[in-house]
Amino acid sequence: MGLHHRTVTVASAAGLHARPAKLFVQEAVRLGVPVRIRAGERTVPATSMLGVLSLGASQGTEVTLESDAPGAEDALDALAALLARDLDAEETLDA
Amino acid sequence: MPDQPADAPAMRPDLLDPRAVLLHESAADRAEAIRRCGRVLVEVGAVAESYVDAMLERENSISTYVGEGVAIPHGTAAAKEVVRRDAICVVRFPGGVDWDGERVTLCVGIAAKGDGHVPLLAALADILLDPERARTLREATEVHQVIKELT
To answer: A57 burial class (0-12, 13-18, 19+ CB within 10 angstroms)?
Structure first.
């Protein structure tokens, strides 16, 4: 299987904070594939809201998603695509 | 600030006014708890009155519960224009508040114009990931304890 990873830049204007972080974590939980997210020296499970918040990733921060679980490629693609969108700008669409 | 080390969050001490720390509040439900937080942010001059409704709107769109009995109510992106200065408030509800099925005893209300509060959230998350520090924060009875933990 090996370790798969995607590096992506956080697009949300307010960073990977409360709302974008929650949407990201919800999607990671929904996908059910163990994925870890790394920013700088810190790596946390993508399903941990507190972990993701603790990354302190602002807009433009480069983060890396990694997984060696079955289904990793699709899960990483989905989560990377989410981070590459400005989830704050989309707020009015789904509020 | 992509070059800033993500593992060394630092909370700006000016974000938390001692008057914005309330440790013995009670609220019948989530909306009342959020309004209490919003009122504190209005009282310390951080936001205009309309921010309170924006906090309720945000909460209805997606829960701000983060874990460890803590929620972080804050306004919508559109409400940033009524934020006068970045600030947080800490409001403790010792009796607990039902938060969409979770029990919340501590709210950290947030008013932020840009992404200045992201390090602040990271620092808070760091505290909450440490069960001992999380408990100290949840059970704090003195304002200075809270300020010491958070800043």
So the answer is: buried
